[in-house]
Amino acid sequence: MPHLKTALLGTLLGATAMGLAAGAVEAKDLRIALQSDADVLDPDQSRTFVGRIVYTSLCDKLVDITPDLEIIPQLATEWTTAEDGKSITMKLREGVTFHDGTPFNAEAVAANIDRSQNLEESRRKSELASVTGTEVLGEYEIKLNLSAPDATLMAQLADRAGMMISPTAAEAAGADFGNNPVCSGPFKFSERVAQDKIVLTKFDDYWNADEYHFDSVTFLPIPDTTVRLANLQSGDIDMLERLAATDLAQAEADPNLTVESAVSLGYQGVTFNVDNGAKGDNPWGNDKRLRQAFSAAIDREAINQVVFEGSAAPGNQPFPPNSPWYDQDYPVPARDVEKAKALLAEAGFADGIDLEVQVPNTNVPLQLMQVIQAMTAEAGINISLVSKEFATLLSDQTAGDYTASQIGWSGRVDPDGNIHQFVTTDGGINDSHFSNPEVDAALNEARTLADTAARKEKYNAAMDVLMDEMPIVYVYHEKWIWALNSKLKGFTPYPDGMIRLEGVTWEE
Amino acid sequence: MLRYILRRALIAIPTILLISVFVFSLQKLLPGDPVLAMAGEERDAATLEFLREKYHLNDPIPVQYFNWIGNAVQGDLGMSLRTRQPVTELMAEKLPVTIQLAVMAMIFALLIGIPAGILSAVKKGTVTDYVANVVALSGLSIPNFWLGIMLILLVSVKWQWLPASGYVPLSEDFAQSVKTMLMPAFVLGTALAATLMRHTRSAMLGVLSADYVRTARAKGLAERRVVLKHAFRNALTPIVTLTALLFGELVAGAVLTEQIFTIPGFGKLVVDAVFNRDYAVVQGIVLVTAIGFIAMNLLADVLYVVLNPRLRGQ
User: Fold this and answer.
1) What CA dihedral angle connects B167, B173, B176 and B177, to 10 degrees?
2) How many independent structural domains does chain B possess?
3) pTM of the full predicted structure?
4) What is this model's ipTM?
C-alpha cells in the first residue's frame, strides 16, 4: 500500500512539475531594459525615443515599415492617393477592438486625427499639418483630405501620428490619457512606476495575437550601460537596447548572449553657426572653405574604429550610405590633410585658425570630439572643446550662442524628416540659420512628389549645394545595438531602433 | 521638555522659508531652458512658446514663486512636466524606497562602525586599531559607483547570488525586496560606517580617560561592563548627533547609489528631474528633503536631552 501511495504521489508530483514547466513557458514575462525612462504615455503628447519602443508593443499604427523602410499595412489594409495628390483613401482592418472593447473603425480614425491636430498639448500637429480634414466613407473606409500633395504623410502615419488610441478612453481622460493608455496593440497597459518599470500584458483579442508569445512585457529603464549589460548576463533581464560600443566585445564573447544591430536612420555631426545671431558673424560662419577644410581634415573611418570599435557607419550626408536616398555622387570622403591646409590658406588662414566647439558632456560625444580635435590639429585647426550638459547645449544652440556644436538627429523614416527642418530658411530647428534659395526650392518641392525617382532628384539637387556649403558636417550614423539572451529567437533588427515582438519566441 | 521641542520647531519655520526661496532661485539659475528639455526633438519656436505659456514660465519670477509656495503650503507641489504625474504622488511613491535603503544602509553602518570604533579605542595603538582604521579609511575613499559596479559584476554576474539592480517593494515580496536592497545598502553603508567608526573611536577615547571610568575600574567592575555601560553610554551623545547629521549624507549618497543600482527612489527622481529640467519635481524634492533634514536635527536635539540628563534643566 505505501508503495502505491508513493507511486501515486510521484505521478502527481511529476504531472504538476510538467504542468508547471509547460506553464512557465507560456507565462514568460519578457523583460527589456531601456536606456532611459519614457515620458508621458500618450502618442499625441510624447517625445522620447524609448516611449516609441513601448508604443510598438502597446499601440498599433495605421501603417508600419519593413526593415527596408517600405510602408506596409497595419490597421489600414490598403490605401490609394488621388490623381491630384490631394487626398488619400484608406481601407481599414475589420474586427479590431481597442483594449477597452471600443471597436476600431473609420470614426475612430477620424477622432484620432482630430485629437492629434486639436488637442492643446498635442506634439503631432506639424506632422499632420497637410491634413485638412477627414471623411468617413463607410464603417471601414476613410478619406484624408490634404491641402497639397504630401509625400511624407504615410511615413508620419507609420509613427506616433498614426497610432490609434481608443476614442472612448481619450474622451474620458483628456490630456491625462497617458496615465492609463488604451490602444489596440498586441499588449495592453497594466502598470507603470516612474523610473522603475512599465508593465504590459498580452491582449488576447488582438487581431494577430497568434504571433505574440509572451504573457507580459516589462520595460525597465536602466541608464548605466555597464549595469544594463550586467543585468542581462545575470539573467535579470532578457534583452537590452543600445549596448555601448565599448561593451560590444564583452557581449559578443558571452555564449549566452546574441548581439543584433542595424544602422540607424539618424546622424551625428557638427553644426556650424552660419547666421544665427551675432556669433554667426565669424570666419567659420562666413567662409564655407573653412567648413570644407574641417570636413577634409577628419578621418571618418578612423573615428569609427577608435570611438566605436567599428560598430558605427561613417557618413557625410543626412542619410546613411545604405539608404536609398543617399547621393552616390558624394561618397564618404577619405581624409585629406593637404586639401584642408590648402583650403585654410585660400581663406587666409595659412597659419592655422581656432575653433570653439560645444559638445554634450557625455562619454561618446566627448571621445568623438577629442579624436576630431587631434585630427584637425594636424591641418592647423585648433579646436577648443566646451562641454555642456545637454539641455544647456541645446539652449545655447537655439539662441545662436555658439560657433560650432556637436549634435545629431535620431532620424525619420521619410527623408524629409532628416533634412528639411534643419537647412531650409524657415526650418523649425534650423539652428545654423543656413539659408539658400536653391535648397529651399528643392526640399519644398521634394515633399510634394509621390514619384520616388523624381523626389530623389530633388534631394540630390539640395545635396549639390549642401556638400559645398556644409552648414552641417555629417560625421557618422549610429548603429542600434541590441543584446539578447540567446534563448530569445526571431528578433528582427529595424533601422528605426524599435523592438517589434511579432514572431519573437523564448526557447529553453 | 515640550516647550523646548516647540521652541526648536518654531525656529525651524523661517529656516524652511529661506530654503524655499533659495531652492526656487537656484533652479532658475540653472542654465538650459526647461521648455527645450520638454520639447525634445520637436523644438520649433511655436512649440516652445506654447509650453512657456502653459507652464507659466513667462510670468515674473516672484509671481512664479508665490504661486508655487502658496500651493505648496496646501500640499500641492505641482505636476511633473515630463510625465504629468503630481509631484506629491511621485514623492509618496519614491519616499518609502529611499527610506528602506537609508534604514538598511544605516544598519550596515551602525553594525560595522560602532563595534569597530569601540574596539579600536579599547585596543588603541595595537594591530586591531590599525586594521580597523585602514578598513574605515578605505570605506571612505572607495567611490560608491566603483564599489557598486564591482559588486554587481562579482555578486550578480559571476556568482549570481543577488539581482544586479532594480527594486521590489517590501509589501510585494519581503525577502526579494531585502535581497535587491542588500548590495546598494552595503555600498551606501560602508562609507557612513567609516565616519561613524572614527567618531566613535575618538568619543570613546575621551570618555575612557575620564576619572569615573578609572573609578569604575577601581571598583573592580568587569572591563566589558566598564566599556559598554559606563563609557559607551557617555560617548553616545556625539555619536547620536553624528548619526542624525549623517542622514544628509545618506540622502546625498542615495542619489548616486540609486543611480547605479537603478532603484526608483528619491535620489534617482531628483537626478532625472534635474537632467530633464523637470522644475516642479526638483523644487518639491529639495524642499521636502530640506524639511526632513531639519526634522532629523530637531530629533537629535531632543535625543540629547533624553540621553544626557544634565541638559534637561537648560
Assistant:
1) 40
2) 2
3) 0.85
4) 0.80
